[in-house]
Each structure stands twice: as structure tokens, then as C-alpha cells.
Task: structure prediction
Amino acid sequence: MRIEPLGDSALLVRVVEEFHPEKSLDAVLRALQALEFAAIPGVIELAPAYTTIGVFFDPARIARNAGKSSILEAFKTGIEHAIQTASQAGRFRGAPTAIIEVPVCYEDEFAPDLADVAQHAGLSHDEVIHRHSDASYRVTCVGFTPGFPFLSGMPRELATPRRASPRKEIPAGAVAIGGTQTGIYPRKSPGGWNIIGRTSLRLFDVLRNPPALFHAGDCVRFRKISRSEFEQFSA
Amino acid sequence: MNVLVRSAGFLASVQDLGRTGLRQSGVSVGGALDPHALRVANALVGNADNAAGVEATLGTLRLQFEDERLVAWGGGAFTAQIGATDLPPGHAGLVTKDEELKLTAPNAGGRAWLAISGGIDVPLVLGSRSTDLKGNFGGYGGRALRDGDLLPLGTAGRLKERRFTNRRTHENGDLEIAAPWISEWSAPGIWASATKNGVLRIIRGNEWDRFTPEAQESFLSAAFSVTPDSDRMGARLEGPELDRVETGDLLSEAVAPGTVQVPPNGQPILLLGDCQTIGGYPKIAHVITVDLPMAAQLSPGDAVRFHEVSLAQAQDLLREREEDFARFRVGLTLHFS
Result:
């Protein structure tokens, strides 16, 4: 574990050095839980992603505490202590077992880049759909836009480079492939990923608490649905 | 009571100090791009630090009030009038019923923050009254203000006689103030009007060493100009190309307002309040917190340079400012009570 400054009001905790879909994610989630549990005074926000956790402080708090030595040093000690104590006590609740199922319509009108993905993989159109909806995924982080889940666990052969020129507008609910990852656009936004389907699930809703449907560590599966089922879901 | 937006200018929005605690859901902090300026303006009108005000960007904002309110503003080289009387930045002014407040941006652009006693009482969305212009939620209907909008105001604390120099108490006990009234006292100039001196102090980012010595040198010596596609997410800069020693991909990780990241084209982006929560571009530097007010004033065409300080210096400067602000607040409270 390494802790580096992220500007003058935050630290970046490098929980592990290398990303591994399962192992590093669990390590980050363990550390995240330890930091939440420790509730270090002055910490206002935790931002996990892949191998790191951003720890943000209240600048006023930093100012009040900054006496003799660097306050970030003091926070650093607190963070190290919290993460180490938690790993000793075995407080981690373990990987979540709940699976969020995402109904996806892979039909042509919702899948403008499915042919490109199939060609790149050397697979048939149907085989791409089958493999994409047959795999188990985990949310490695949420970001880019509010509620956007980056999912690991996609069969390697489906990996497709991002599009050379990003689209100006990708519709809400678009299921897409970017490199080795798959993800879902929560709302209309620009983007460079290859679109292979559409879901009617609402990924981000300000009236919900928490507002995002997905969080780091969640297990996800895609279920292929027909056009008429998609319309029923959307209704 | 409400305030009527008679003219919204170009891009004005309701902002408070932003949303915290939702980065895990991918929600950026947002809020006033210069939180300190809003906090100071709020203090001047007797509001809590986090009360919602208006962030103005370009053009002229004209507001008409339904009742008597104290107002104060700070930020770029704007001008403001209550009726025909000038309201300088960092002073409190009294706006009477039906009177108009005008806040005009300089031609070169910039940003200013206006506080109104009682605060703008739009509903809290995800714990904040800030407008998320990309996500279209919060603030007033999740969007920038338009002509004709009627903004609800919260209840202001009772105006205390002592702060007005031109007061007159009627026989029935009512207080009459010969408007306009502008406070003689003010916030420190440096807080109320952010200068555009073109030099932002930075500390090195974690990927500093991934850049070539030439890139490191150019970054600290060259002038970068702000491009027109800059917005509340970030100021996009144009200057000498900042080359990396190694071009391997990075995993996305947390970024923050003030982070200076460099995409593959070598042209840096200085992230501001509406920036994404995570980013995968190497971070060459971070603008220090006390210089974010200046960063928030950057407008297309402006030139900016970077000057390196140590993390300890950055924190000392922040501590100093916070101590000064705490004293300022105590002083105002004594003055008002």
C-alpha cells in the first residue's frame, strides 16, 4: 500500500499495484470498508477506482489541524492504521453475493456496432450476444458520468478497441464495449465505446438513495430480451 | 418571497458549496467554482457558508426583489448596481422591495458569485442546491437560469438596526432605511475580487516523472492559453506539447478540482468543479486550493502560467486563509449582533 498526495486536500491510497479483476477489487473494497468504518474525522469523501481510493478532506479541517507537521501525514497515519486494523480483525463482509440482472435488447436498431465487434472477434453476431450475456461481471468502478458502471469479466475475445472517433451522442441505456471492459451509459452522452445493445433499466436517479444503481464490487449479469420485452420494460 | 430573474445573461446558475459524498456514484462535487468567494459573500449577508447563491458567467444578470434583502458578491472584474448605486465587490448592500440588482460581466468574461440574505431556497437534490448542468438536476429545474424565472428565497435573519448608518426609527418602532445602503466595511479585497494575474501555483502531480525533462520545463515556464471549449468541467489549455517518457495507459483513478491532467495530445486540461470523479490521464500537477479562485476566472483567450510550490507551502497558505476567514466571520458576527 502506498499513499500519495492528490493536491493539497486529498490523498490517493494505492491499495494494490496491479489491477486484477477479482483480487485487486476485493482488496480495494476491503480497504474502502475499513475507511468507512474508521470514519476518520475530517474525511469527507472516499472515491474507489480499480486499484486506488481517493480520500478527500475538508480543507477547513486540514487548516485547523495543520500545526507542526503536515496534516496529510497525520491523515496518512490514520488511513494506514484503519486499513491494517481492519485486515487483522477480519471485519470484511466478503464479496457481495447479490447479482444485479440487466435485461438487454441486442436487436439491430439498438446495436449499431455489434457487427464491428463480431468482425473483430471473428465470431458470428449471435455468438457475440451469447458470450456477452453468458458471462458474469463485476463493477470495478463507477464514474465517467454519474452512475456509469465499468464492468470487468467480459470474455477476452469480445474485447474491441474504442471507436476512432467518438460519437457525439449515445442514448441512455446503451450497453457498450470499450477495450476489455463493458459498460452501460446511464444517460445521453458523448462516448467512444462500441454499442451492442440497450437496457431500459434506470442507472441513475436523483430521487433514489444512493442515486446510482451500481457500486464498485456489485455482480452483474446481462439477460437477452426481445424487442417486445424491451418495450414492456420501458413502459 | 421570491426574486425575479429579469435577465439571466449568458449562463447563470444556482450554486452552493457543492455535493459531497457521492463520488462513489460518479457524481462530481460541482457547486460554485470558487467556493471561497461564495462563502465570503454569504458571510457578508449573514447566511450560512453553504447557502445557495447565483454564479454568473457572461452578460448581465438583472434581478428584481419582492422584499428587502441584503446582497453581496465577489469574483471576477464584474460591476454591480443596486438601482443606480454601485455595489462594489465584497460589500453588503440593501435591496428594497421592487428594486433591481444588476451584475454585469466584463467583456473578457469571468465568473462572479452573488449571495442573497436567506439564500436561494430551491429544493435539496442529493444533499445540495447546486445545479448540475451536465446531469440536469439540482438548482432551478436542473438548468441554467432563464429570463422570467422566479427563484424562491429562504427566510432572512432580521435586519439589525446597528448595521445601517442611514437608519431612522419611526415612532411605531418600524425601521426605515434610506435606500440605497451600501456597507462601509468590506471583505478583504483579495477574497472579493480574484485577480487575473495569470500565474497559478501548483504542486507536482503523481505522474510528474512520466513527463520528459523538456515537458516539465515547459510546463513551469511557458504561457498556456485557455481555449474556447473550456467550461465548468475544466479549462482546456494550449501551449507547448507536453510529451511523456512512457506512453503506457493508466488505470483511471480519483481526480479533483485543480488537477492538471494531460491527454495524449500533450495539451493540459485544468479540471474545475464539474470535472469527472475519475480520470485516466497522467496528472502533471495540481493547482493549490487557495489559487482555485483564480483558476475559476480563466476565460477563453486568457494566458496562464504555472509556478511550483511545495505541498507544505500549499497547506500553510490554505491554513492562513482559513484562519483569516474564521476571524472575518467572528468580526462580522460581532458587527451584526
Remarks:
- Chain A touches chain B through 47 residues (CB under 8 Å).
- Chain A has a mean pLDDT of 89.
- The helical segments of chain A are 23-38, 59-65, 71-89, 114-121, 125-134, 227-234.
